[in-house]
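Fold this sequence, please.
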Amino acid sequence: MSVRNTVGRVVTGLAAVGMAATASATLATPAYAGMSGCNNLVCIRIDGSGLNVKSVRASLTSNSRFYGHFHIYGGGLDRNTVTQSWGYPNSYTLPVNRNLPNGSVICVEGWSHVNGGVNSVGRACGQVSF
């Protein structure tokens, strides 16, 4: 084998190692846990860093109100708030302070209590993932 072929293979090998290191560094970046959004009357805010979720907040869009409760669920979470009158800017924050599985979808759903029944007033969700 010539010196030129040996040098070419070493350079090619080093380039492949460099690309693999770059790819693994890219995969090792922290996941995105912070997000917020609204759907119909209901809003969600997920605070955290990486897969670590600090809290999930349920709230309402501007000038909205209802009598009922919020249900926060997904990624191992399952919590109902008290039933009461909710109005903007009222909110409920669920402390989580732990890592959730990659790809977890967390939702906040508002349930209006009217005449003995319950009706959804909106569901907002966010995903915790890399």
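The helical segments are 3-27. The two ends are 45 Å apart (CA to CA).
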